[in-house]
Specification:
Layout: H1 3-10, H2 12-36, H3 44-66, H4 82-113, H5 127-157
Helix pairs in contact: 2-3, 3-5, 4-5
Length: 158
């Protein structure tokens, strides 16, 4: 794989979340300007900001996972001997992967079902909003699987 393509895939979440953040900021600023400077407030600005914010949150969650920024409470785990600690960690990783897979499937079904339902102002399909959940769960699932794979590969090599 070429270097730019690999970099793009590695930074996918940050690029998408950054673009969503820019859209949120610009939409909110435009909404404020049109509300207080002109007599015609931009009614679409709030809806665009909300859609972009949904994308920011779900894609940003994957970027945070990739960087190890999610909370990991191991207060009781460190008290266990090595073998039970590994078993509990493996069970926890399996539960998270199953949860993310189920969340992805349910979000995809819900997004497909909401294609005919429009948003209130722009009349866009609600699937555009719920697509953020689908893409977010897919990214989380892929990133978590990669983190788990590296973690267990490092444990085996020790």
């Amino acid at each position: 794989m070429s270097r730019p393509r690999a970099l793009l895939l590695d930074q996918f979440e940050e690029i998408l979340a950054g673009a969503a953040l820019i859209v949120v900021v610009l939409a909110v600023c435009w909404g404020v300007v049109t509300r207080y400077v002109t007599a015609e407030p931009a009614t679409w600005a709030g809806e665009v900001a909300a859609i972009a914010f949904a994308w920011l949150i779900f894609i940003g969650a994957s970027a945070a996972l990739k960087r190890g920024m999610h909370v990991h409470i191991d207060m009781l785990l460190i008290l266990l001997p090595e073998a039970p600690r590994r078993a509990v960690t493996l069970a926890g990783d399996a539960i998270v992967i199953v949860f993310l897979a189920i969340g992805f499937v349910l979000a995809a079904e819900f997004s497909i079902d909401s294609w005919d339902s429009p948003t209130s102002v722009l009349r866009l399909p609600l699937s555009i909003v719920y697509g953020s959940v689908v893409v977010g769960f897919a990214c989380l699932l892929c990133r978590y699987a990669a983190v788990v794979r590296v973690h267990y590969r490092d444990q085996v090599s020790e």
